[in-house]
Design brief:
250 residues, alpha/beta, Nitrilase/N-carbamoyl-D-aminoacid amidohydrolase, 6-stranded mixed beta sheet, 3-stranded mixed beta sheet, 3 helices, globular
Length: 250
């Protein structure tokens, strides 16, 4: 039986002092999951679903409990990168829209098929009673009959951030807008700002790399994902978004 505990010491955490507008100072612990990502050595070669799950499980295996209220995975930290549209197929799961569906994959794993990673993440959040934010590939079926932008293979493939509440419920889904050499994924046909609310710090906005000129509004904390990159535009993301964020004083 799989264990959903936080069991190994590879998590970095920091305490943030947040000054909420119209509220007293609030403290919460935000943790970032940092690990040496195990990559697929042949990302251009399609895998069977079982092999893809085994690969992703290696990147989900170890954690450390440090009393966090919210835990954030980096971009590409579960599945890796450099896939083609065909080779990423076995890593895809269909993430339902939490604005339309209320669902805890951990509590109700049989509701949707082929959602093993969603269930794993949901159970981590539920067992450890924290908000959990992760990045994963998402498949959304579509039809040219109703959507002229639908890809020829009948599905959108998105670089996606998912957010689970501390009871394991899926509360947010964000599709990356500005892709950066990501042949496996589609640009969402509509730009959408995504937020979720926590009991410890109010609302958070979700962003991913290459989003200069974008912020979720003046009353949001910002969660910003960045895959490893040693040059612009990646290295300027944090500096750009910090002034827009409520955490700027932290």
């Amino acid at each position: 039986m799989a264990s959903y505990g936080l069991s190994a010491a590879i998590l970095g955490a920091c305490v943030l002092a947040i000054h909420l507008i119209g509220a007293e100072e609030t403290l919460y612990v935000a943790a970032v999951y940092e690990h040496r990502v195990i990559l697929n050595p042949r990302p251009g070669v399609p895998l069977r679903r079982r092999a893809a799950l085994e690969h992703m499980e290696k990147n989900l295996h170890a954690f450390a409990e440090q009393g966090a209220h919210i835990l954030v995975f980096p971009e590409d930290a579960i599945h890796g990168f450099n896939y083609t549209r065909a080779s990423v197929a076995s890593y895809l799961e269909t993430v339902p829209d939490p604005e339309e569906v209320t669902w805890s994959p951990c509590a109700d794993p049989g509701r949707f098929s082929n959602t093993e990673v969603l269930r794993r993440l949901s159970c981590m959040a539920r067992k450890n009673r924290l908000f959990l934010v992760a990045n994963m590939p998402d498949r959304q079926p579509c039809s040219r009959a109703s959507d002229p932008l639908c890809p020829p293979d009948g599905q959108y493939q998105f670089n996606t951030d998912v957010v689970f509440s501390d009871n394991g419920t899926l509360v947010a889904r964000y599709h990356k807008q500005n892709l950066y050499f990501e042949a496996a994924f589609d640009t969402p046909p509509r730009n959408k700002y995504v937020t979720f609310t926590t009991p410890f710090a109010g609302r958070f906005g979700v962003l991913m790399t290459q989003l200069h000129g974008t912020n979720c509004g003046p009353r949001f904390h910002t969660l910003l994902w960045c895959a490893v990159c040693k040059s612009n535009p990646c290295i300027s993301e944090t500096a750009y978004h910090s002034p827009h964020d409520l955490n700027a004083e932290a």
